[in-house]
Write a structure and sequence with these properties.
It is globular, with a radius of gyration of 21 Å. With about 400 residues, the chain is α/β, with parallel strands linked by helices. It binds 4'-deoxy-4'-aminopyridoxal-5'-phosphate (PMP). This is Aminotransferase. One of its GO terms (molecular function) is transaminase activity.
Length: about 400
């Protein structure tokens, strides 16, 4: 045992480190690598947003904001949720501004989950979900979506794992890592089961602005779901603001005020200059968002078509900026495929099984990189797959 280990909490000792990190560390020591590994936009935050933030510093807004966030920002978020998703939240009671969607998720879970409560998580999924639940003393109960269903949650899968201890379900649409998006009719079927079993829902909608089908719906907009749902969203993906660390949660006052109680003791407030930038993002940033969405869409269409052409079967993802092709026909595991592709062709992808059991046999490729890089990545991946066939 390393000295100091004996002082660590059991919760931390039992936590699994993120499987993505290891690949970044490997790739960062190499030259000429094309990275399809990172889950973030390749755009710089628009100048107007940066300028608004700079201006706030020039004007001396350097103190804490209200714990729940600048009221001006909460008002903008309220309008945004209404205009974009047809859901109403009061800026005073039903919205909290957080340090990324990450903190919003953490607060939502900690405010509602008691030790031993079970939370259904839908794998493959964002690597933090299980850890967030475990840190709150809850038990993550995974259900596995599969390639046959384009990685879309089937409502009956929820019923199969329900127990008297099931309290909540965490859903994410559009999804990281699969890009799958649940349309309104599919959400309605999930809502029936949520209601039947009296569950609450953590709905991670961080990729809402990056959906490519008209039928996107916020889970809170589904009949009778508003009162059971905490919507998690933020500025990282749609507004290309990952480094600003700004997100928000919306929900019934009872949930948001409970989250605020934790937030005011553990975080005080989200960064002030970032909040000033975000006001500008909400007021005038939607054209930029639409422009970026269109650009991802073009890249999705090229990249997914090309993956299929080189023999890596991939469903057409409805949102986010990830493709999740199967590599099963190569006979390699996800780990071997990703490792060898990096070593032989210098293309970094993430093995699918780090996102959950049913991610095995798949890799996650982020296409949030230039078209030129994507074309070169496809060229290299094609060569890699062809060489495998020759060896076999
Ligand atoms: N949820 C999902 C599904 C994500 O992919 C990410 C970021 N990779 C987050 C939440 C966290 O986002 P933020 O930067 O706002 O903390």
């Amino acid at each position: 045992m390393t000295h100091g280990q004996q002082y660590l909490s059991e919760k931390v000792i039992n936590l699994k480190p993120s499987g993505i990190r290891r690949f970044f560390d490997l790739a960062s020591g190499m030259e000429g690598v094309i990275s399809l590994g990172v889950g973030e936009p390749d755009f710089v935050t628009s100048w107007a947003i940066r300028e608004a933030s700079i201006l706030s510093l020039e004007q001396g807004y350097t103190a804490y904001t209200a714990n729940a966030g600048l009221i001006e920002l909460r008002r903008e978020i309220s309008k945004y949720m209404k205009n974009r998703f047809e859901v109403s939240y009061s800026p005073e009671e039903e919205i909290i501004v957080t340090v990324g969607a990450s903190q919003a998720l953490d607060l939502a879970v900690r405010a509602t989950i008691n030790p031993g409560d079970e939370v259904i998580i839908v794998e493959p999924c964002f690597v933090a979900y299980a850890s967030i639940v475990q840190l709150a003393g809850g038990i993550p109960v995974p259900v596995q979506t599969t390639a046959e269903n384009e990685f879309k949650l089937q409502p009956e899968q929820i019923e199969e794992v329900i127990t008297p201890r099931t309290k909540a379900i965490l859903i994410c649409s559009p999804n990281n890592p699969t890009g799958s998006m649940l349309v309104k009719s599919e959400l309605e079927k999930i809502a029936d089961i949520v209601k039947k079993h009296d569950l609450i829902v953590f709905s991670d909608e961080i990729y809402a602005e990056l959906s490519y089908e008209d039928s996107y719906a916020s889970f809170a907009s589904i009949d009778e779901m508003w009162e059971r749902t905490i919507v998690i969203n933020g500025f990282s993906k749609g507004f290309a603001m990952t480094g600003w660390r700004l997100g928000f949660a919306c929900g019934p006052s009872v949930f948001i005020q409970a989250m605020l109680k934790i937030h005011q003791h553990t975080m005080m407030c989200a960064p002030t200059m970032a909040q000033h930038g975000a006001v500008e993002a909400m007021k005038n940033g939607m054209d930029d968002v639409a422009h970026m969405q269109k650009s991802y869409l073009q890249r999705r269409n090229y990249f997914v078509k090309s993956l299929n052409e080189i023999g890596l079967d991939c469903h057409m993802p409805g949102g986010a900026f990830y493709a999740f092709p199967s590599i099963k026909r190569t006979g390699l595991t996800s780990e071997e495929f990703a490792q060898n592709l990096l070593m032989e062709e210098k293309v970094a992808v993430v093995p699918g099984d780090v996102f959950g059991e049913s991610g095995a046999g798949h890799i996650r490729c982020s296409y949030a990189t230039s078209m030129e890089q994507l074309k070169e990545a496809i060229k290299r991946m094609k060569r890699f797959v062809e060489n495998l066939q020759v060896k076999a």
